[in-house]
TrEMBL record:
It comes from Scleroderma citrinum Foug A. Coiled coil: none annotated. SUPFAM superfamilies: Protein kinase-like (PK-like) (SSF56112). Pfam families: Pkinase (PF00069). It catalyses: L-threonyl-[protein] + ATP = O-phospho-L-threonyl-[protein] + ADP + H(+); L-seryl-[protein] + ATP = O-phospho-L-seryl-[protein] + ADP + H(+). This is non-specific serine/threonine protein kinase. InterPro entries: AGC-kinase_C, Kinase-like_dom_sf, Prot_kinase_dom, Protein_kinase_ATP_BS, Rho-assoc_Ser/Thr_Kinase, Ser/Thr_kinase_AS. Belongs to the protein kinase superfamily. STE Ser/Thr protein kinase family. COT1 subfamily. GO terms for biological process: cytoskeleton organization.
Length: 487
């Protein structure tokens, strides 16, 4: 037997060595040679309490999420290193610039690791003003305390998300924004959470939204409509290319940046193209609306008018902003196949855009009614209710485009057909973002909210209200929500 030294502690605390004999270990007997008295141990959680099991499950999920993110980040870092090495080896980078590029790469990677270690909290942002309020939360203009940069912060109540079964939708919104680098989609910089709220920190687009412009100018000329709708087409195409359907294309969700160009926002109803439909979401909202207004029978045909009087249109416009803030929302732009629960794809977004084209040129949505339930019925029976008023002059190309987009899904135009439609003749699709827009917001500062209807939101407190807290078990549903964009 060989001897090897081991360390022992002497009386004065010093380490001394003492010989230790190694013992040979005989191999374990095979299963066949085990006797009847051999004890077998089986792992089971039956004797553990339900609390212990749930804690173990939570720990497992958290560890899996942590290491998945760490591995994904390592893969991305390695890919960036390989890309730089290939550029150097292939001579893409001149010899005199190699050292400079390597130093730049190391500096950026160091900043990236520092950002990953940084924990983003609500206290890192100062509220400037509340600029929007929705069914599940608010949108605030905030300023980062350490850098002074301005962002739009969207807050969502966790408890409400769970109650209304909106987890898949908020996850789709977060994932889409995190994946997107398109100039046509609002950019997400951070996402984080606390026990009460989810937070999305996005770029602030100070020009307001298209709905505010439509309410101000009533109608657009065909040239102005052509410009804005061309930009919307590229924005929707960018979302589809990421593998998502927006499902909530409406003027409220089309924002205007400081240069006057458009970006698509609010992906709270988005879904992946590979997922099953969720059209019953709209059904539930409409059922809520019917319960609130039980005196009106939305099934009776005589309660729905083929055309609306100017007074009714004015009422619709006055209530338009309130509907945007309500839980029910407005179904004016939703495609019929979404309501009919027979399955749908990305073509439903082109119906919505067709409805916006109609509103830009006519002055109101094609199926607007005094309440969402009537609008729902009109859309289902759209061949009867799609009507172009005689007093509004539309070119043949404009009307044909609207009819080609607002039709049954199998006959509806796709993105390439829309781009090639005569209405968009001469559109420079590759350079739209470099063309002077018809309207550029006049801003007095980086926190100017002139183009947001904030009058009705002035009474909201600066601090977020204390809402219902979700339990630790339900909080696992929001695991992996955190995101930091490295720019």
């Amino acid at each position: 037997m060989s001897q090897r030294p081991s360390f022992e502690t002497s009386g004065n605390g010093a380490l001394t060595t003492a010989p230790v004999q190694e013992r040979s270990v005989s191999p374990a007997p095979s299963t066949k040679s085990r006797g009847e008295d051999y004890v077998y141990f089986e792992r089971s959680t039956e004797e553990f309490s339900s609390d212990a099991v749930s804690r173990a499950t939570a720990a497992k999920l958290k560890l899996e999420s942590y290491y998945k993110l760490a591995v994904d980040a390592a893969i991305e870092r390695n890919a960036r290193r390989v890309e730089l090495e290939q550029k150097i080896n292939q001579g893409v980078i001149p010899n005199e610039a190699k050292e400079r590029e390597i130093r730049k790469y190391r500096r950026l990677e160091s900043q990236y690791l520092r950002l990953r270690r940084t924990k983003i909290r609500l206290s890192d942002f100062r509220t400037v003003k509340v600029i929007g309020k929705g069914a599940f939360g608010e949108v605030r203009l905030v300023q980062k305390v350490d850098t002074g940069k301005v962002y739009a912060m969207k807050t969502l109540q966790k408890a409400e998300m769970l109650k209304r079964d909106q987890l898949a939708h908020i996850r789709a919104e977060r994932d889409l924004l995190a994946e997107s680098t398109s100039p046509w989609v609002v950019q997400l910089f951070y996402s984080f959470q606390d026990p009460l709220y989810l937070y999305l920190i996005m770029e602030f687009l100070p020009g307001g939204d298209l709905m505010t412009m439509l309410m101000k100018y009533d109608v657009f000329s065909e040239d102005v409509t052509r410009f804005y709708m061309a930009e919307c087409i590229l924005a929707i195409q960018a979302v589809h290319d990421l593998g998502y359907i927006h499902r909530d294309i409406k003027p409220d969700n089309i924002l205007i940046d400081k240069n006057g160009h458009l970006k698509l926002s609010d992906f709270g109803l988005s879904t992946g193209l590979h997922k099953n439909t969720d059209g019953d979401y709209y059904k539930r909202l409409l059922e809520q609306d019917k319960q609130k207004d039980s005196t009106r029978n939305s099934v009776q045909v005589n309660a729905i008018h083929l055309t609306m009087s100017r007074e009714q249109i004015a009422t619709w416009k006055a209530n338009r902003r309130k509907l945007a803030y309500s839980t029910v929302g407005t179904p004016d732009y939703i495609a019929p196949e979404v309501f009919m629960l027979k399955g749908y794809g990305k073509e439903c977004d082109w119906w919505s855009l067709g409805a916006i084209v109609f509103e830009c040129l006519v002055g109101y949505a094609p199926f607007c009614s005094e309440n969402p339930s009537d609008t729902y019925k009109k859309i289902i029976e759209w061949p009867t209710y799609l009507y172009f008023p005689e007093e509004v002059h539309l070119s043949h190309e404009a009307e044909h485009l609207i009819r080609s987009m607002m039709t049954w899904a199998p006959q509806r135009l796709g993105v390439n057909e829309i781009k090639n439609h005569p209405f968009f003749y001469g559109a420079d699709w590759d350079n739209l973002r470099y063309i002077a827009p018809p309207f550029v917001p006049a801003l007095s500062s980086i926190t100017d909210t002139t183009y947001f209807p904030t009058d009705e939101l002035n009474n909201l407190p600066e601090q977020l209200e204390t809402v219902e807290k979700v339990g630790s078990d339900k909080d696992l549903a929001f695991l992996g929500f955190t995101f930091k964009r490295f720019t």
